[in-house]
Amino acid sequence: MDALFKQKLLSLRNPLEPKTFGEALLPNALWVSKKPIKVEAAPIAKEVYSEKVQVIESLERFAEEQSSQLKSDILKVEGGEIQIRKNAEWDDLETYSTVEALKTQLMLNSQLAEVQLKDKDQKAVKVIFVTEAFRSWEEVEPELQTGFINELLTGFPLKTAEFFERMIKGMKLAPEEVIIYPVEGSDSIDLAAEVMKVAAFYRPEVIITLGAKATQKILKSNDRLSMIHGQFFNRRVGEGENFQIVPLFHPAIIETNLNMKKTAWADMQKIMKHLKKLP
To answer: Are 27 and 18 within 8 A, CB to CB?
Structure first.
């Protein structure tokens, strides 16, 4: 009996590795099945495509076509006019040929930047996660461990960093495929342009903004995050460099709200499909 008790105790201390994407992201969620089941790929969330959305998209396409033909941002229609809002681009950003040259021009704390960019290869990076701000080096240094978690600790307290690590693993992203960067430095220094300089150097397939502030600064927009999360936005950096930008809710909000977890899962699967991480 004692031996059986000890065996059960050890099994509780060493939980099994998650078998599904849902268990990896949401290990304690009630709606993630704990029964032994056949492991299958998580289903892709279906888009809700209403008649209203179709009408709006049709109007947008019509306005863009007419504006292009008229070479004007103002389209006159019966009873009024439509002004087409142009995408805000990132022009006049200096580009760099080496990571050493890039690092010398960064305003981000050099020690924090070193944690993020050390050993990152241009050919490997697929995603840049853009958060609102990093913690100070004095706060981060005592908590540093080994491995990928250190990169996450620069932006999040330990509990949130561990949750965010599960999110990244759930997206089937390897540490070498990921860079994390803030839009604000110490003393609220605006680093949004710096984020795009880093993006122009590493050329990720997707830039994922985390939270409202990061989203607004990178998209140069005041759109509410609740209305645009999970959508893909094309933005140009300099001459011909185009990036897909996808807003997500901040991990600190997602980890404490079950409904947010479901929403984040659906948004993340869209990104995974774009990155060919899902069939």
So the answer is: yes
40 vs 44: CA distance, rounded Å: 12
Give pLDDT tens digits for 28-79: 554 444 454 444 444 544 444 456 555 655 665 565 555 555 555 565 666 6
The dihedral sign for the CA sequence 104, 107, 109, 115:
negative
Q: Model confidence over 156-194: pLDDT tens digits?
A: 999 999 999 999 999 999 999 999 999 999 888 999 999
Cα–Cα dist 243/206, whole Å:
6
Partners of 180 in the beta sheet?
129
Q: C-alpha distances in angstroms, 213 versus 104, 173, 208, 216, 262?
A: 26, 24, 13, 5, 22
**Up-side HSE of residue 120: CA atoms within 13 Å toward CB?**
29
Top CATH class of 99-274 equals alpha beta
**Cα Dmax for the chain:** 85
